[in-house]
Q: What sequence folds into this?
């Protein structure tokens, strides 16, 4: 895919400028305020910034054409290099990276959406309650023939309504991977790079994808995509803890914890590849990143290197 929109090209240039500035040693509180104002101006700005942030936290997984060490040593004179790197990442078919065009498309389509660190509750006419987690976008269709929520990106918790009359169409949540039909019920749905995660809190759901159909009961959870499906170990009734502001980790890799908490914050946190898979267990406040980092410092063999106020790296603890 090639970028044809002048707006999209300008956004990439602006993101490059902001990334170089945020990595500099003399970034000020005024600069941070200016960045926040720029983010507030346009949903497309926020989408592109989040994708660039994702890029920086996963530099060791980029294709060989992208020099990850070059990214770590950028300065104001290397704006051209940053532009080249961002152009590769935003348009190349790299697993886990969405194009700017995709982000713009979702922004235009969404009936309801949340920003970083925001949650929202939407009440539908049939009494169904949709709770949106951070960085979530949905569309809704509620007619005599159809009751559907399309989860474009992010995470929702659904409590189906009691007002639906006899003969009403079934309530469904759709994602790019398949359809979740409510048989009751209360359930959590989350889109990820690996597929769609579903966790049932009450009653059951019927999941239909291209290659399978199955009923998922209360207390069960499933990860599925267009090619495969499998139960999620240690996930039952834990995913929806975000509704209480918590993330419950049971022997999860450190990178997974940081990725999860990163959904709620603008700060960029990268992890040295030597410690990415350290196992972590505990209950963490999703909104208190500083508190979580302090706890990790006390309990794990790690150090934290602050590149700037907005970009930090978790590294192995020094033996010195």
A:
């Amino acid at each position: 895919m090639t970028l044809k929109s002048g707006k999209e090209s300008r956004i990439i240039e602006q993101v490059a400028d902001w990334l170089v500035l945020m990595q500099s040693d003399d970034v000020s509180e005024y600069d941070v305020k200016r960045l926040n104002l720029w983010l507030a101006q346009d949903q497309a700005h926020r989408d592109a910034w989040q994708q660039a942030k994702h890029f920086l936290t996963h530099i060791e997984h980029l294709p060989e054409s992208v020099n990850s060490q070059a990214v770590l040593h950028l300065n104001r004179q290397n704006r051209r290099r940053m532009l080249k790197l961002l152009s590769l990442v935003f348009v190349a078919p790299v697993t886990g990276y969405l194009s700017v065009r995709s982000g713009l498309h979702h922004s235009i389509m969404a009936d309801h959406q949340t920003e970083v660190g925001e949650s929202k509750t939407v009440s539908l006419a049939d009494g169904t309650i949709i709770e949106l987690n951070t960085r979530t976008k949905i569309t809704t269709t509620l007619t005599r023939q159809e009751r559907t929520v399309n989860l474009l990106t992010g995470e929702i918790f659904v409590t189906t309504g009691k007002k639906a009359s006899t003969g009403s169409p079934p309530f469904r949540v759709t994602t790019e991977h398949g359809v979740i039909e409510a048989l009751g019920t209360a359930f959590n749905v989350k889109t990820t790079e690996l597929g769609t995660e579903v966790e049932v809190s009450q009653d059951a759901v019927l999941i239909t994808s291209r290659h399978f159909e199955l009923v998922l009961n209360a207390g069960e959870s499933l990860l599925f995509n267009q090619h495969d499906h499998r139960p999620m170990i240690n996930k039952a009734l834990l995913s929806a803890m975000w509704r209480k502001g918590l993330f419950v980790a049971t022997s999860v890799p450190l990178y997974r914890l940081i990725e999860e908490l990163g959904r709620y914050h603008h700060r960029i946190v990268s992890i040295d590849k030597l410690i990415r898979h350290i196992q972590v267990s505990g209950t963490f406040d999703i909104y208190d990143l500083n508190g979580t980092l302090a706890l990790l410092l006390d309990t794990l063999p790690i150090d934290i290197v602050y590149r700037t106020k907005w970009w930090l790296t978790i590294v192995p603890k020094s033996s010195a």
Q: What stands out?
A: The helical segments are 6-23, 29-41, 43-57, 68-72, 79-91, 100-109, 254-262, 289-299. The radius of gyration is 21 Å.
